Amino acid sequence: MSLFHGLSAFPITPADADGIVDTDALASCVTRLVVPGVASIGLLGSTGSYAYLRREQRRRAIEAAVEVLGVTERPPLIVGVGALRTDEAQALARDAEAAGADGLLLAPVSYAPLTEDEVFGLFSAVAGSTGLPICIYHNPGTTHFRFSDALIVRLAQVSNIVAVKQPGLPAAEIGPAFRSLQTQLPGDFSIGYSGDWHASGALLAGAHAWFSVVGGILPEATARLALAAVAQDRAAVQHYEHGFAPLWALFQQYGSFRVVYAIAALLGLTTAMPPLPVMGVPRDYWPAVEKAIQSASAA
Length: 299
What we know:
By secondary structure, this protein is α/β, with parallel strands linked by helices. It contains twelve helices and eight strands. It is globular and about 45 Å long.
């Protein structure tokens, strides 16, 4: 089975106001993800603040996670290596491989809008700089680049590029979109989805992976939902989704990045807040976050 299958849990990367990673708090966030049903841990994804951290701090985070998890009998570690410059992304990929990562997640970060040929060049260059398998990170909400199916198919021919992390789609759209792309790709190429409030629908439609924000902070509850969806148990999925509904509403209102920091604080994992200029969920709304945690956990 590919590395990029099942529930991939993406934790925050606690850091101080100067962007120095709090390795003790990170260890607390990461070790709680080693539970049945979590197939991999996604370090330094968007939830993990990769775009806000300097290279040495990103390496520090990987090394801390590998140290606390150990090298055997743990979920594999997928590490985000997106950067503005191709040479920087290549260096980050080599850092991650040297530090003990098992796979990479690469987004086409940019300031100037990128063309498809430029994105193909970026991915080809990074794939050629590492022996690790790479997942395409399709996140148009932050990168403002949208991968066409044709570009994904083209990239699937590049050595080491073995998966794609697609943005979430409404239930009525996900099945046709998944099946259309799947028919164009090699049989072992993994198609996974983010967008937590759409993810169970993606798994029910046959998607191979759920790249999850909430899985990185509430792993047990998220694993129950993921496993029910993989098993095509629609009644259980409906039950669990009802419990998650208040949290999905908060994610959509404030952005999941902000909400998970509030959850981490309420769970006593860290006092770190999102990196500025991002501001956290107003404290007046933390009681609603706490109720959402309880609802999801009790489902």
